[in-house]
Amino acid sequence: MKRKMPQIILAVIGAVLLAASGVYAGMQISDADNSDTEQKIIDAIESSDSNSPGDTNGKDSMQKVRQAYGIIQQNYLEDVEDQQLVEGAIEGMLSTLEDPHSSYMDVEMMEQFDDQIESSFEGIGAEVSMVNDIVTIVSPIKDSPAEKAGLRPNDQVLSVDGEELQGLNLNEAVAKIRGEKGTEVVLEIQRSSVADPFEVTITRDEIPVETVYSSTETVEGKKTGIIEITNFSENTANEFNDQLKTLESEGIEGLVIDVRANPGGLLNVAEEILSLFVPSDIPYIQIEDQNGETMPYYSDLDEKKDYPISVVIDEGSASASEILAIAMKELGYDVVGKQSYGKGTVQQAVPLGDGSSIKLTTFKWLSPEGKWINEEGVKPTVEVSQPDYFYTSPVQVEESFTYDETDSAISNLQQMLEGLGYEPGRTDGYFDRETEEAVRNFQSDHELEETGEVDEETAGVLEANIMEKIREGEDDRQLEKALQELYQ
């Protein structure tokens, strides 16, 4: 029998959204009665405290917890709140799993999460995860302060406003980063392509939950639709379906689906979108439980679309984005870009009765052909990198960079100049006369003092211009290639 994915609290995002109003864990909350799995987890928790004779190990273990609780309450030097001990015990149990995607969400976090999936919120607009005990950017949100400041997938956050994050769990780190609109936060960032850490100052702002954008381009005389999905949130499937119908009514002859820098979201939303493309004779996803048993899920679609489709991914495409990308790939469509993030697990939110929840990894998700991409990602059928200037980083200028100096930061500046059309003659980090002339030309065009040296002001204007060019989509080789591949 063919099954459709039930609308339960399954989630495929392991990241956390930094926002003043809370932490977005990409989950859809529903009543316990709607999920057999949720009830099974609750039963398992309750059974750990069973008084049955055959469960002496579980009973003894829980007795140790109670004993430790009592000892602390009665003997610790200072006053300790009951709630603090209980939540600490829960967080401690979850930390032993060594799973960055399983965590405790207190009452405040859950209340704020409910608001975030339905409306706009305030923050820096980046999703993070804990990778090797380091807070790591999964992806900045489109047009968010984080994106405008130049944060990239896989950037590591070392400190916040001068306070190191080492030793903090993800929730504690996020609490330091998030804040109200108009306030500033300074993040110390380590990027793999840059030798030294650098600081990024971000002004928090309102982040609208708008997740689908569409446009058309003419390619080889054919009207071609482009749909970008920035997140798989509550209304994304409806937005996508509406915009796809509009494009089809306009007579598109091909479609590009862009999920770059999309960190994932709700599993049922990815299912609804895939059901528009994957016919009923193959599954669009398989779910594997704790016992290794798999269940395929199917759509009701009779046949594939009658026009070609390609999907664009990058290192910031994670979770639900990868579900979509690999399903389309195994259906025979091209996937263009760079290898994706690699998250192949599913989380559920299990309510604890007081408004708080445990977000727990409960399943693996597999591709239609049964492939698990966890920690590996989806490999594109056509690999394409962006121009070098897309990968440049903000430069910390303590003393001006001048002629005859050599520094990795100068290489970074040379790549920016080259990307903006100013020819430095080289990008190896040596500041020669040609680089000096390129700097003078840039300063002249932007009403800066024409010194030929890169001071803090020149570096700031250079960075702002390169980020603006990236956001405008100029030289987007990945999208250009995806459009070309449609009609090959």
UniProtKB/TrEMBL annotation:
Annotated SMART domains: PDZ, TSPc
Keywords attached to this entry: Hydrolase, Protease, Serine protease, Signal
A UniProt-annotated Pfam family: Peptidase_S41
Taxonomy, superkingdom: Bacteria
Record SUPFAM superfamilies: ClpP/crotonase (SSF52096), PDZ domain-like (SSF50156), PGBD-like (SSF47090)
InterPro entries xref list: ClpP/crotonase-like_dom_sf, CtpA/B_N, PDZ, PDZ_6, PDZ_sf, Peptidase_S41A, Peptidoglycan-bd-like, PGBD-like_sf
Signal peptide from the UniProt entry: 1-25
Start and end residues of each PDZ domain: 106-178
Family: Belongs to the peptidase S41A family.
Family matches, as NCBIfam families: prc (TIGR00225)
Name of the protein: S41 family peptidase
